[in-house]
Amino acid sequence: MSDNGRFERAPSRFTDRITEDGRDGWPVEAGRYRLVVSRACPWASRSLVVRRLLGLEDALSLAVADPVQDERSWRFTLDPDDRDPVLGIRFLSEAYEAREPGPPGGVSVPAVVDVPTGRLVTNDYQRITLDLETEWTRLHRPGAPDLYPERLREEIDERMDGIYRDVNNGVYEAGFATSQEAYEEAYGRLFARLDQVSEHLAAQRYLVGDTITEADVRLFTTLVRFDAVYHGHFKCNRNKLTEDRVLWAYARDLFQTPGFGDTVDFDHIKRHYYVVHHHINPTRIVPRGPDLRGWRAPHHREELGGRPFGDGTPPSPPRQDEVVVPL
Fold first, then answer.
1. pLDDT tens for residues 284-297?
2. List 41, 125, 250, 273, catalytic entry
3. What pTM was computed for the model?
4. What is the pLDDT of residues 108-149, one digit of tens each?
5. How many CB atoms lie within 10 A of CB 300?
6. 278, exposed or middle or buried, with CB in 10 Å at 0-12, 13-18, 19+?
7. Which residues, 6+ apart, have CB-to-CB distance to 47 below 8 Å?
8. 172 belongs to the catalytic site
9. 236 given a catalytic annotation
10. Is the Cβ–Cβ distance between 111 and 92 less than 8 Å?
């Protein structure tokens, strides 16, 4: 937190990359790594969506942390004996300590852990999905979409930069602000950007080009949490997502696309934000609403054209052990 009450996100500490050529010492290898996520976390949810869309479930195993942390941060209390069955650890911090002995500075998800050594490889949420899309291509499923096409990368990067600054991180800057000035500044940037994105999406189905890209994944993970937590809990309350005709239809379109909504757990999302952020919600009461049934309502975005998976195909249904309770 800065002196003026503005929330400042710490950069990822461990930024090694898993690449085809293994230049950081971590070569792409099926079954070697474990992706650790919380379904509550928007940054981790990016990797969940991308992993599903690319069909990497068999190549990159998944550990899901309890949405409610304790003093040691993310824990594996959803698993038998409160221990991850593959890594054999109770807390994600143990993988951080295996990488760098001593008290871990900040334990975050998503994280990728090297299974043979139990060491953290990376917690670089900005890079993990891009590498899954560009370095793990040998292990992609047949028909996997190109989520980061080279010819569109400059435009995708530009879109993602503004969305990250004002929307993905902007909701946190509003919610964690400790001064009126810092809150109002973040609030203003957030809704100015959402208005801009809404105008852009009124005329085209997806953010860049006519297929789903990494830019859509990153916007979706914030929009899907907007009414459930950001509108009230983070005071981002100029309007709800459901009150913006374009963004609400766009979010429903993605939610109903295989690989998106089937990774979302609203129970985890709400319990994490309202219980863990006790400095914002000291009673830790988790609200019953909002009504989530509208996520399955027709969106009519197909009338704008576009092909969700381009020349590819939808992913197969989620594995039985990764199925999320449907709405």
1. 999 999 999 999 99
2. 41
3. 0.97
4. 999 999 999 999 999 999 999 999 999 999 999 999 999 999
5. 10
6. exposed
7. 35, 37, 110, 125, 128, 129, 132
8. yes
9. no
10. yes
